[in-house]
Amino acid sequence: MVSVKVSAAKSTPLTRNLPTFITFDKSPEEHTVRDLKKAITAKNPKLHPSRQKLTLKGDSKTLPDNATLKDAGVVDGSEVTVKDLGPQIGWKTVFLIEYAGPLIIHPLFYHFPQIFFGGPVQHSVLQKYVYAAVMLHFLKRELETLFVHRFSHGTMPFRNVFKNSAHYHILSGLLLAWSVYSPTYAANSPYIRGTIRENPTFLWACLAVWLFAELSNLHTHITLRNLRPVGSTKRAIPHGYGFSLVSCPNYFFETLSWTVIAVMTGSYAAWIFWAAGTYQMAVWAIKKHKNYKKEFGKDYPANRKAMFPFIL
Q: pTM score, two decimals?
């Protein structure tokens, strides 16, 4: 038997019934932190487990859901503090919202130029190809979210959905669409006529690299999916296509895909989105690379870089 005191890190309407005591009939080895969260919810129904951040009294380290109470340092007589993280939203829902933005914004700018540019735009071959590439990219991301990705975290604070979506809705949505579907890139524009941007060989070569990057990105996502059994947060060392050189080839191929769009168009908007996205993915890749090495130690391939082969 183990009895745990649960107190509030900060008083909120949902934690007004705290402190309280949670008692389990079995030993700390036979219960997990997730069990403790569920027991807290049983006494405070509106305080869903996804809203709870549990820490040991006097410590700031979050107790992982899958850890047993013993491994988390929770023993009979321990005191645990719970922080209400506020309203939550599922990561799958967040991803769907993020990628839906460009799927709505780009057709509006492409098909209704008179609203945004004051008149019709005779679309160049470049604009047609970019439109198709952008739409296919984000459609792929939506389908991956629904059928491929398995998320290690179930939810995130609802307020963060606006910050996360801004990256896609503003940079790859509004800004990119405003730039590449404008008269500057139209078929009769001097920026296009007589330049490499209407050269079929250049355009098809770019599309070939783009397609390679997109399919490679999908392949690595499927590899990562197959590492994690349904309903678990289990981690394993990824191997196979792309992973022999870097820990996060999915980020590398994503960057390559958007490099193609930036090179094809030369658009300031495409380069801004490329820079912002590449920086963020590099930060994530470095963190994941360090976590892999910390978790798997000598078993993790020593010659791998984080994101860019032989460089970073």
A: 0.86
